[in-house]
Amino acid sequence: MKKLRSSPAASFAAVALVYILAGAVGFAVYGAFDADWRVRLLVADVAATVVTFAFSVIFKNASVYDPYWSVQPMVITLACAFPRRLTFFSWLLLAAVCVWGVRLTWNWALNFGSLEREDWRYVMLREKTGKLYPLINFTGIHMVPTLIVYACTLPAAQAIRDGAEANFWSVAAVCLCFGAAALQTVADLQMRGYRAERETPFCRRGLWKYSRHPNYLGELMMWWGIGLSVFAVYTNWWLLAGAAANTVLFLVVSIPMADGRQAKKAGFAEYKAETRMLLPLKK
To answer: What is the value of pTM for the model shown?
Structure first.
């Protein structure tokens, strides 16, 4: 196990196999009982997450779950797409989800390293929660994000299954998704360049000069784009529930945790006063 964890190639292969197994379990569960497709999809999603969680325990690394965030929406939308006849709007939604998902998964792969490396947030939670960590790991790190991204992806799955037709506002909202992927790509490249040199305590390159979290802004834009695009067709408010829950997750959990870590550096108060939280605009 130690050799597997320390080898980047073996670690990557192990994580890939975990996701193949999780996907197989998810598809098996989806077809195992008769119910509304949304319920079956939810149960299948939860089952795949349980498989991923089990291996995060085996490998003693909760970061096994990290790619789930980007892989899950692609699997769901692609599964809903075929073998249906796709409308122009369906193709747009598929393209938006896959462009976003491939970009985020690729960024994860570049930063993966091996199973010896675990996201600092999980390490911090393990140290702070002690014996409660297994519960926190299952609920907070695995299940809550799965349920939120399920809710974010469901509007696209609904529109694709229904063969919904686009209108002006739905197309305009999908463009927000492509803008989100472009924003995150630029932010990731700028952050990677900063990490290679570390010339200042805080990244002040490009978008990061004006925003402390441009990558998080891209995440919010992505799912509001999906939700609003489908809302423009159906005008049902529940279609925005996932994007709203995702926004709460970032504003209440992700951003405060990231800022809390940065606050340990000298000069953070000045940096925070000069730099907006999300919008890359001069303060």
So the answer is: 0.94
